[in-house]
Amino acid sequence: MSPPLDPTPVDADADVDVDTDTAPLHTLPPPFNLSALTPLTQGAEALVYTTTFLTSSTHVVLKYRPPKPYRHPTLDKRLTKARLLAEARVLVKCRREGVQVPAVLGGDWEEGWLVLEFVEGGTVRGVLDGWAEGVRIMGGEEKVWALMGRVGRAVGRLHEVGVVHGDLTTSNLMVRGPSPPEGRGGGEHMQRQAQSDPEPDILDGEIVLIDFGLATQSVHEEERAVDLYVLERAFAATHPAAEHLFKEVLRAYGESFKGAKVVLRRLEDVRLRGRKRSMLG
Amino acid sequence: MIALGLEGSANKIGIGLILHPDTPNGTPTKPPVILSNLRHTYISPAGSGFLPKDTALHHRAWVVRLIKQAVRQAKVKVEDIDCICYTKGPGMGAPLQSVALAARTLSLLWGKPLVGVNHCVGHIEMGRAITAASNPVVLYVSGGNTQVIAYSAQRYRIFGETLDIAIGNCIDRFARTLLIPNDPFPGYNVEQLAKKGKHLVDLPYGVKGMDTSFSGILAAADILATKISDTLPEEERLKSEDGELITKEDLCFSLQETAYAMLVEITERAMAHVGSRQVLVVGGVGSNLRLQEMMGLMARDRGGMVFATDERFCIDNGIMIAHAGLLEYGTGVRMPFEESTCTQRFRTDEVFVGWRD
Ligand SMILES: Nc1ncnc2c1ncn2[C@@H]1O[C@H](COP(=O)(O)OP(=O)(O)OP(=O)(O)O)[C@@H](O)[C@H]1O
Ligand SMILES: [Mg+2]
């Protein structure tokens, strides 16, 4: 008999402690330094901090895309620059067209940072997780349906103005509103609850689209359909308990602008391609 | 409990025996023990891929020999074997059928129950067993599959996948264009050539959220390949920014740097989205050391780590089928003989994962 298997991971430092995030993994380019910044999350590519900008009461988000050590430097520079520019351009365009997105306050594509308006609230991902775990309020299911409708219309609006997002997930859709208790502004939220005021509910909040690094300006139905397909799959994978809600997203999308119905038909083709693609071992 | 595993969904036939040493109520409490792990690969000539019919013939010619040898090497008696596990899909029709037929024959001959296994789930479970990664984001990369997977609520859920061709298929066809040999396998030869490449040639970078697209790279590579031929006059040949001639090695290097960056990126996106710091790479392309290295650098930046296995387990094998099959068998699932079919399409998220919490 062979000996039991050797459980040694490849290329991993044995002493990496998976549960602590003490020492900063990155330094920031000037004019920023870590002291005035509060880390918010480590996104897919970007490190996201909250801070103040220009005045001490302007809450902003600093989105910094550090160089990726795994990527060839030429490719890395090309991508970071292209994405930062795409993101800034699309955000400005969306704002001009009245699509709900954070305002761009500043940026430097050589250094890889953008300063954006801080959106008070939470991600749809967090809201749905909270909802699925039973943080349900009166009329919860109805409110979630309404929220899904707003998601569909927000994406429809985006497509209508000629933008394809490129990375639609529930982490990249925010709901403006009081931050959930575990997030920022939690104290305030609790207070309101204690005073039993009619509580402003995050489920009623308006949808704000974020994270436009992979966005393109396009009106092609194929690209719009892929955008929906990406969201549909992220939704199904992330929120198995809420999967049935997605049809409301599509329904609302279908009514949101003139070309939407065609996109929904195209979506069926894209899905079929996904399912039918021969999957060889 | 002991299982015999038979795999033949693509151009490799793999036969293996695995032991789950301690299984109170069917749940293993100790790491599995590999009793034998044999494989034979059908290699097509350079410039061509493997066709289903020839591959099925190859598997039929080898299956009996390999089973005999595997059982002998494992030093077990037929009575000791609890079940026979075979690949139900996904994969190429004819090769899958040839191996399923062998499994059914053995089942009748020996009077053993059958377990039909999803090939992708086989890769994932084997990877978890070998590396002891508890709940990683899984990048599954092979000749026919490119998926980013994470476990939740009794299923392996697909967060991202290719929108057109698989990464392995992209590399294989790229190798064919450049007439790189298929022996031992195209990806290995591309990897060796890439080590000697220096110039990064611009290739389409196709990432959409957690999905990827490789068809653009392939189309570009086909065009580029025609521009590096030494039969062309020097002035028409492709050159780098500093005027050096672009070589086959440079194209292999560029292909790897671009395509693997895409894979690492979608994996990172899934990790950020589900909030995980472990990543497990499985499937044939997972044996690529440059991919493992890049993945390691990404994971380190997220304060996590990468788990990978070597070619014995990354590349299609019978052990992974035996292992995943035995996990399911342990939960009491029984497959009626009439249902022991196979299917070319069988999505990872269709399998009910009853053996995990
Ligand atoms: N303007 C904002 N206001 C409040 N929170 C934000 C804002 N922008 C981002 N966030 C938070 O930070 C997270 C990550 O941000 P974002 O999606 O822009 O980065 P990322 O996923 O790393 O993006 P990219 O893929 O473009 O690098 C979001 O999911 C959200 O929770
Ligand atoms: Mg994001």
Automatic annotation (TrEMBL), chain A:
Enzyme Commission identifier(s): 2.7.11.1
One GO cellular component, as annotated: nucleus
PROSITE patterns registered for this protein in UniProt: PROTEIN_KINASE_DOM (PS50011), PROTEIN_KINASE_TYR (PS00109)
Subcellular location: Chromosome, Telomere; Cytoplasm; Nucleus
Principal place of residence: nucleus
Single GO biological process annotation from the record: tRNA processing
GO molecular function annotations of the record: ATP binding; hydrolase activity; protein serine/threonine kinase activity
InterPro entries in the record: Kinase-like_dom_sf, Prot_kinase_dom, Tyr_kinase_AS
UniProt keywords, alphabetically: Activator, ATP-binding, Chromosome, Cytoplasm, Hydrolase, Kinase, Nucleotide-binding, Nucleus, Phosphoprotein, Serine/threonine-protein kinase, Telomere, Transcription, Transcription regulation, Transferase, tRNA processing
Entry-linked Gene3D superfamilies: Phosphorylase Kinase, domain 1, Transferase(Phosphotransferase) domain 1
Reactions the enzyme catalyzes: L-threonyl-[protein] + ATP = O-phospho-L-threonyl-[protein] + ADP + H(+); L-seryl-[protein] + ATP = O-phospho-L-seryl-[protein] + ADP + H(+)
Name of the top EC class for this enzyme: transferase
Region of interest called Disordered, as start-end residue ranges on this chain: 1-25, 171-199
Keyword Metal-binding: no
Residue span(s) of domain Protein kinase: 34-281
Family note: Belongs to the protein kinase superfamily. BUD32 family.
Quaternary structure and interacting proteins, as annotated: Component of the EKC/KEOPS complex composed of at least BUD32, CGI121, GON7, KAE1 and PCC1; the whole complex dimerizes.
Role summary: Component of the EKC/KEOPS complex that is required for the formation of a threonylcarbamoyl group on adenosine at position 37 (t(6)A37) in tRNAs that read codons beginning with adenine. The complex is probably involved in the transfer of the threonylcarbamoyl moiety of threonylcarbamoyl-AMP (TC-AMP) to the N6 group of A37. BUD32 has ATPase activity in the context of the EKC/KEOPS complex and likely plays a supporting role to the catalytic subunit KAE1. The EKC/KEOPS complex also promotes both telomere uncapping and telomere elongation.
Protein name: EKC/KEOPS complex subunit BUD32
Automatic annotation (TrEMBL), chain B:
Subcellular location: Cytoplasm; Nucleus
Reaction catalyzed: L-threonylcarbamoyladenylate + adenosine(37) in tRNA = N(6)-L-threonylcarbamoyladenosine(37) in tRNA + AMP + H(+)
Cofactor(s) the protein needs: a divalent metal cation
EC top class named in words: transferase
A GO term from the CC aspect: cytoplasm
Keywords noted in UniProt: Acyltransferase, Cytoplasm, Metal-binding, Nucleus, Transferase, tRNA processing
Keyword match DNA damage: no
Binding site for a divalent metal cation: 119, 123, 140, 316
Co-factor remark: Binds 1 divalent metal cation per subunit.
EC id: 2.3.1.234
Signal sequence, renumbered to the chain: none
Binding site for substrate: 140-144, 172, 187, 191, 288
Single GO biological process annotation from the record: tRNA threonylcarbamoyladenosine modification
Keyword Transmembrane helix recorded: no
Superkingdom of the source species: Eukaryota
Domain named Gcp-like: residues: 37-322
Coiled coil region boundaries: none
Entry-linked HAMAP family: Kae1
Stated family: Belongs to the KAE1 / TsaD family.
The protein's name: N(6)-L-threonylcarbamoyladenine synthase
